[in-house]
Amino acid sequence: MESLLDAGSIPAASIAIFLRSMKKFIKPSTFFIIILALSPLLTALAVGIRTSDHEGFTRIVFEADRSFTYAVQKRPGQMQLRLSSRADFRGRTWAVQDSPLLERVIHEIQGNESIFTVFFKGDATVKKNFVLEKPFRVVFDLEKSEKPAAPLPSAPEIPEKKPDPPQENPPAPAKPKPIETICIDPGHGGEDLGAIGKSKLQEKNVTLQIGHKLKKLIESRTGLRVIMTRDKDSEVSLNTRASIANNQLAQMFISIHANSSFRKSAYGSETFFVSLQATDQESLELAQKENQNLEDPGETIKNDELKMILWNMAQTEYIRESSKLAEYVQNELNELLGTRNRGVKQAPFRVLMRTAMPAILIETAFISNNNEEKKLKNEEFLDKIAFAIYNGVSKFIYYYNNILK
Fold first, then answer.
1. Phi, psi values for residue 250, rounded to 5°
2. Residues 41-96: pLDDT tens digits?
3. Are residues 391 and 290 in the same domain?
4. What are phi and psi of 274, to 5 degrees?
5. How many CA atoms lie within 13 A of 376 on its CB side?
């Protein structure tokens, strides 16, 4: 395949062959500089596109030889996929044959970025998109836009009718939509330091760092909207955190924390979803500790109040989804971090009870453990945590969006 350059096309393989032949005539230091200068050309992404038509939707897949970051811009009749690096793609225009919703794809290069513009047919629109790994694929599903129904002719006037008495049963809830908005909740903040490690590492700073990394991953790889309950070192009450997620119509809530225990040997990751009954005494004590961050520090949480919150805020509707999300995230934390599997657990976390969406609380590692505290100071370890959470979230999105079909 050929790498598209500014003034035309030069095969990347030809550049490599030329450099190998010239290596013996060039000083090693000069050769190294040339390699650095040409590295963007030699490392262009190998990108392929394929489409498939299904009952009710058309799928277009961008597959690459390795992962890449991207941004999506949707416009009437088209969308743009902007890659953060150059793509090795044959030709400038790719016509889609016999597709009811796709017309063509145009590839352009701007600086060190590649832009794929996808043109739709008729009233097509992107209904959902997601990322798959091994190999890395960005997937878009298109459907026909639903046109508003034509207005009905005016009805003849009829005598005023008294309103029906209120129904005992509320109307059925609206049909769930594919996930479009995710809320990330970095725990603690401001004067609420959270747990503190032996070397004075503060939980509030760790959770904010992971939150920013996770937000960047989700936005760049899925194109979904991500909101944060705090994006700086500020104190936010538990009630406000849940309200932010609910008011912004988030469809997933991820609260990030660092664990602490009087047992210095305790280590590993845990992921929680909400329940009135804690999995064990240690989980209950952890929830009680996290629940202390209240608008009124003297407020106590009674079991009756917990029941009221749990049922009135309809969190029970999302127990199954929350459990599945926790399972996906915990599995990724186990695999990528190589930490002990403390498992998926349940506990009465107040911040989770007030959210009207699938919601989990992640205790990423023990800041009270000397070894894990050292890891939590390391940027690469925080990157791994964010990537593990992202992988779990992306698998849940694929699961959730598919059960809506």
1. -65, 150
2. 456 788 889 999 888 899 999 998 887 777 788 888 899 888 878 888 877 888 89
3. yes
4. -80, 145
5. 34
Query: Is 190 part of a structural domain of the chain?
Result: yes
> CA angle 335-338-342, nearest 5°?
85
3-state helix vs strand vs coil in the chain, percent to 5: 35, 30, 35
Closest CA relative to residue 5, chosen from 129, 88, 115? 88
Q: Which helix (H) or strand (E) holds 64?
A: strand 57-64
Q: Give Rg (Cα) of the chain.
A: 26
| Tens of pLDDT, residues 95-113 | 898 899 999 999 998 888 8
Residue 242 lies in a domain: yes
Cβ atoms 85, 40 nearer than 8 A: yes
CATH of the domain at 301: 3.40.630.40
CA atoms of 17 and 20, how far apart (whole Å)? 5
DSSP string, 89-119: -SSSEEEPTT-SSEEEEEEEEETTEEEEEEE
Sequence-distant (≥ 6) Cβ neighbours of residue 131 within 8 angstroms: 137, 138, 139, 221, 222, 394
Q: Are 119 and 185 in a shared domain? A: no
Range of the domain at 101: 45-144
Query: Are 128 and 190 found together in one domain?
Result: no
Q: Are residues 217 and 272 in the same domain?
A: yes
254 shares a domain with 389: yes
Which of 93, 125, 144 is the last residue in one of the domains?
144
Confidence (pTM): 0.57
In the numeric block, the tokens 């002719």 are attached to 153
Report the number of distinct structural domains present in the chain.
2
